[in-house]
Amino acid sequence: MTEQTTGDRDELSRTLRQLRHTADLSDVEAGRLAGFWQAKVSRIEEASEHIATFTPTVVPGLLQTEPYARAIFSSADLTPSEIDKAVTARITRQQLLHDPGHRFTLITTAGALAWRAGTPEQMAAQVDHIAESTRLPNAKVGVIPWGTQARVFPLHGWDLYDRRAVIVGTANATAVLTESADVAVYADIFAQMEGMAVYDNQARSVLTRIADEYRELGATS
Known about the structure:
The protein is α/β, with parallel strands linked by helices and 221 residues long. Helix content is 50%, strand content 14%.
C-alpha cells in the first residue's frame, strides 16, 4: 500500500481542524447538521489510508444498508428532507470501500446486531450485507460473537484515522481527538477489540445464524 501524498495529509489536517470546531455543536450528528457532518467525515475518510471503526451498539456506518441508515437517522429529531440528505451522504461514503487506495478494519458486536432497526426482513438483509462485505479485498470486517470473554469494556464506539485522529460520538455531541496520547489510547483498545473478533468464514457463520434468526422472527410475526 502506497503512502499518502503530502496533499492528502494536508487535506486530512485541514478537515480535522474544521471538525474540531464543528464538534463543539451539540446537534452535529443528531440534529440539523447530520448531512453536513456526513460530508465532512467523508472528506476525512478520503484523505486517510487506513480507517478503523468499532461500534458496540450499531452497525458501522460504512456497512449500513439504506433502510438501516434511514431507521438510525429517523430516531433523531430530523425533518424528512434532513433524513434523506443524511442517508444519501452515508450511503455515498461507502463507495470508498471499493477503492484499493484505502484499507478498512470494521468491527462490531453480535449484540449490536440484536438491536433491531427496522423490520426483521430489513435486519436479515442488513446482516447479509455485512457477511458479503467480509469478502472485500481491502476491508477486514470482524464480529465479536455473543459470549466472547471481554478483555476491555468500551462504553462507546469510535473511528480511528491513520492513527492520527479519533472521532468519538456520544448521545449529544461528537469529539475529534488529535493529540497523540489520546489517539494511542484508542489504538490500543482497538487492537484488543480486534483480538476478540472473528473474521472471514467464522464471521460469516455468526452472521448467517443471526440473519436466519431474523428471518424466523419475520415469519412468525
